[in-house]
Amino acid sequence: MSRILLSQPDVTEIEEQFVLDAVRSGWIAPLGPHVDAFEAEVAERVGVRHALALSSGTAALHLALVHLGARPGTVVVLPSMTFAASANAVAYTGAEPVFVDSRAGDGNVDPALLIDAVDTLRAEGREVVAAMMVDLFGRACDYAEIEPALAERGVPLLEDAAEALGATYRGRAAGSFGRAAALSFNGNKIMTTSGGGMLLSDDGDLITHARKLSTQAREPMPWYEHTEIGYNYRLSNVLAALGRGQLTRLDSMIARRREIREMYISALADLPVRFLGEEPGRAHEDDNCWLTTLVVEDPAVDVTEVIATLGDSGIEARHLWKPMHLQPVFAGTQFVGSGVVDDLFVRGLALPSGSALADDDVARVCEQLTGQLAGASG
Ligand SMILES: *Cc1c(COP(=O)(O)O)cnc(C)c1O
């Protein structure tokens, strides 16, 4: 039996045709017409004015932070439960990350704690250059609470929508919140360019500056003139072509991930588990369902063992992101909260969710998981 992966790329002949076109057109040298078209298409899809295609989502976060003034002596507030890339981008700038706890319901940052953290830091005289919000596992944060509170305080919101392309919040697309947002097209994300990312914003100056920074910060002079440190962060034309092909299939890939989530919810209904984000009042129709994640509610169950046993039967499940304040590399950083994310980390797991999974694959995962958890008290 083939191995069932967590979130493998879903690529068809449509993408092959796009890549072939890029190669045959001669636009191999990094930039080209597919990059421009990819930027325009994603901007249109998300509903923002400007987009900048980059080599990764991490690069998008990094450039946005540089533009917002992140540097040694300043602070960036962000959720503890996220992929290391969010926090690494802060560390690149020399700013200090301050990590905030999540809500148990969907794992997204707790808005009240976030605002509390901002107020406390500012009362201590710290300069908070940005609050980075992460739309965890493809579900947007509670922006109705976060956006006005940050605006009132003049703290820029940077949306890490790396996992959330195609998700919406009250009718607005993930990637359209705050001063700027980052998308990722890494191999395991909802759609892929093999590796890549995008910075989105309505702020033309921000994108112009980031564009300059992403190509070694060249000044408009007849020779190579530089007044600030630049980076080599652009996306290649060939990879942008792959992205354009994926974008034509984004809606159907999201629909398939939703279907997979629904299969899990109905097949595992009798187990002692709770699905993250499945709360009254907010339907998963808003989420892109990038990963289906759940929390095992029976404390006697060792989730690490469950994941290992699934692995033995050829199924790749994973722990939720290990919180940043528990990571050795971020030892000594400040954490605001009571440890909800510590508990989510111990009790949570992500199930295979890729849009290329067959119904039989999902059934196999459900059968294995039921075998392991059915005996547990529910
Ligand atoms: C994947 C991811 C990133 C980074 O994207 P890359 O394209 O891999 O650099 C950033 N933040 C979160 C939350 C992610 O999941």
Q: Can you offer a commentary on this structure?
A:
There is one protein chain. The protein is of the alpha/beta class. The chain has two domains: 13-248, Type I PLP-dependent aspartate aminotransferase-like (Major domain) (Aspartate Aminotransferase, domain 2, 3-Layer(aba) Sandwich); 250-377, Aspartate Aminotransferase, domain 1. It is built from twelve helices and 14 strands. The protein has helices at 13-24, 33-46, 57-67, 84-93, 111-123, 143-153, 204-214, 237-248, 250-267, 303-312, 340-347, 359-373, and strands at 50-54, 74-79, 96-100, 127-134, 157-160, 168-169, 172-173, 180-184, 197-201, 273-275, 292-296, 318-319, 334-336, 348-351. Strand 2 (74-79), helix 4 and strand 3 (96-100) form a beta-alpha-beta unit. Helix 1 (13-24) packs antiparallel against helix 8, helix 3 (57-67) packs across helix 7 (204-214) and helix 9 (250-267) packs parallel to helix 12 (359-373). It binds pyridoxal-5'-phosphate. Pyridoxal-5'-phosphate binds next to helix 3 and helix 4.
